[in-house]
Amino acid sequence: MLFRREREFSKKTHDYQFNSTTEMKKNSICFFIAMALMIGGCSKEKEHVHAAEETHEPIEGAGHDARNYEDEAGEAHTDEIRLPVAQAEAAGLETQEVVPETFYRVIKTGGQVQATQGGEVTLVATSSGVVSFVNPSLTEGAALKAGEAVVTLSAKHLQDGDPSALAKINYETERKAFQRAETLVKDQIISAKEFEQTRQRYEMAKTAYEAQSANVTAQGVTVKTPVGGFIKSRLVAQGEYVAVGQPLVTVSQNKRLQLRAEVSEKYYRTLAGIRTAHFRMAYDDTLYKMQDMNGRLLSFGKSAGQSSFYIPVTFEFDNTGDLLPGAFAEVYLLSAPLDNVISVPVSALTEEQGLYFVYLQLDREVYRKQEVGLGQDNGERVEVVSGLQSGDRVVTKGVYQVKQAAGAGVVPEGHSH
Known about the structure:
Structural class: alpha+beta
Strand order of the largest sheet: 14-13-17-3-12-16-15
Order of helices and strands: HHEHEEEEEEHHEEEEEEEEEEEEEEEEH
């Protein structure tokens, strides 16, 4: 009996020890698992903080944004651009406050500058002969004064003789015949009809001779320009034989010109609203404005040509600049007005990979690069549909210097200053 109780006591003791050992093992396993989770959580939090430092994103639970974090770490990399006032003044930097204004709808197209009707004169041969330019080096573009001799026509060594000399001989002959006829008609030796025929021959000979006598020189008959201007084109060559009436030289006065723009048919309904135009020549960056050149709209076509899908729009203006008739131009036709439009000068824009930017002045020495969305362009200013608001101050001149300052302020990865 006693042995049995001792045996049961030993068994209970063994079970208790076994259960205690098992419970301790379970507790140890849970402890290690909890420690592993805590270590992993700390590692992830550190990685999150590190990633936030690199991407400048707000850190959750940090109580401040990335900029404050960077400031505390002493490694701030903002989008601000610093340009000292002295450097800005030396670069001629200018700014302009953004103010909503009236902006006109724009039809951008191509065109050509042409001479006006009557603005060109074509010199023709007044006598048959061989062409000799007064100045052999006279070429297209050379300036001419009104009344200046351009070409001499000589026929002295031709088989038919010199027309000017023949005209003089014919004139002298008919003059003597007329004088004799005046005496004979008084004495009724010849009839009145014969006298009239003689008089007509004399008048014709006189007209032909006087037409050439004023321009006859020892070298031949000279052809003078009645207007001042410049040579638009030489139609004959030195030493070439010409007949009476053949064109020799075209002289353009270049005072009043026309701009003929070709507009697509899709804009036909808006042509009646066109007010004025800006244009830029293919050989020049200068922007010309009709309102500055005493320009006016002459007409616009009411139908398209059989071989073209474009409608002509014609302006006339004073040639206040060095414009070349016949040259092509980029044309900006301005039509209906738009109110409260934000726009900036073309000089304020920079382009990078198809995106457009301006530089805003935040302080006397602080600037910031700002992306903008663009609308219509009139050659001088560009409509801004996004990225700017009233009151912003935009750099309009010296943009390149601000861009250089922005590039100089870039900090390479892995380095700090």
